[in-house]
From TrEMBL:
Keywords per UniProt: Oxidoreductase
SUPFAM superfamilies attached to this UniProt entry: Bacterial luciferase-like
Organism per entry: Streptomyces plicatus
Transmembrane parts of this sequence: none
Pfam families the record matches: Bac_luciferase
Stored InterPro entries: Diverse_substr_monoxygenases, Lucif-like_OxRdtase_Rv2161c, Luciferase-like_dom, Luciferase-like_sf
Listed name of the protein: LLM class F420-dependent oxidoreductase
Gene3D superfamilies in UniProt: Luciferase-like domain
E.C. number: 1.-.-.-
Length: 309
């Protein structure tokens, strides 16, 4: 069976959000993309003392200076489409009040006819935590645990009752309810995060770091699931942050998904062979505007399908 393909929605400053998000969403659904995705970047520290992803010396990309709110972006896409799933890869859980996020996701799922996929992570930016988090950076795991529990409670039957560190619901009716159970997917890199995923989530959101790397991560996750007695399947959606470079060289030092359309598709083929359910292709940082983004998305989709992805 062919790997499902998703597309990252335009959230960066070169796009006209009110016009381009619905336009790209409609076009992507028409091309055959089966899902539409957002990411979260709350701010851009100036100067950025902490490196990107917490890696010392790695600069933040300039496009992170202006990233639209992920839920607003998904809402614009939901209103313009009919079939495509609407996912987050990822929402940084500790930057959100759990009850409010749970209700917003339920409302979006109800409005879209059951198309939301809730992808969560703990984040890494100390500056974002200082500005917006509901728990300290050291408590990011506990914040994610509570968010998942609150979502399950709010999305479940009434009366809703929950007694947590941040959230206390004595007994209440909370609506609207999602149109169907919203799948919760996690970006899990550490051992503790993988255990949280196996025990409490529906799926996994890896990054396209190279086919061998992802295959090894997937193997370890399946082994952990077997050790912990999980019988439910783990849904997998690989995030690919592609960089279109028409004149990129063909050499061993080329980063995965950095290069021409043909090179990006070659990497898609290698990652699809791992056996993951879906690949999310984010091309927005490579495009000058929505027209170029749609053109790149169409080329990648057509060539990927022709190559058997």
């Amino acid at each position: 069976m062919a790997t499902r393909l998703g597309l990252g929605l335009p959230q960066m400053r070169q796009y006209d959000l009110g016009k381009d998000v619905p336009d790209v969403a409609r076009a992507a659904e028409g091309m055959g993309y089966e899902s539409l995705w957002v990411f979260e970047r709350a701010l851009f520290p100036e100067p950025a003392v902490q490196g990107l992803y917490g890696i010392e010396g790695l600069p933040w990309p300039d496009e992170y200076r202006n990233v639209a709110d992920p839920l607003v972006t998904l809402t614009l896409a939901a209103a313009a489409t009919e079939r495509a799933e609407l996912g987050s890869s990822v929402l940084v859980a500790p930057l959100h009040v759990p009850f409010q996020l749970a209700k917003a996701l339920a409302s979006l799922d109800a409005a879209s006819g059951g198309r939301v996929v809730a992808g969560f992570g703990t984040g890494w930016s100390h500056d974002e935590y200082a500005a917006a988090s509901v728990r300290p950076f050291a408590e990011r795991g506990q914040a994610l645990d509570e968010l998942i529990e609150v979502c399950r409670a709010v999305w479940g039957p009434d009366p809703v009752v929950y007694d947590g560190h941040l959230t206390k619901i004595a007994s209440a009716v909370v609506g609207p309810k999602p149109a169907r159970p919203i799948p919760v997917l996690l970006a899990a890199g550490s051992g503790k995060a993988r255990r949280r995923l196996v025990d409490h989530a529906d799926g996994w959101l890896p990054n396209g770091l190279g086919a061998e790397v992802v295959a090894g991560q997937w193997r370890r996750l399946r082994e952990l699931a077997e050790e912990r007695g999980r019988t439910e399947p783990i849904r997998t959606v690989l995030r690919v942050n592609a960089r279109y470079r028409p004149s990129a060289r063909e050499d061993a030092d080329r980063r995965p998904f950095h290069g021409s359309v043909d090179q990006i598709v070659e990497d898609l083929v290698a990652h699809a062979e791992i056996g993951l359910d879906e690949i999310l292709i984010d091309l927005q940082g490579s495009a000058r505007d929505a027209e170029e983004l749609k053109d790149l998305a169409a080329q990648v989709y057509e060539k990927a399908r022709a190559a058997g992805v």
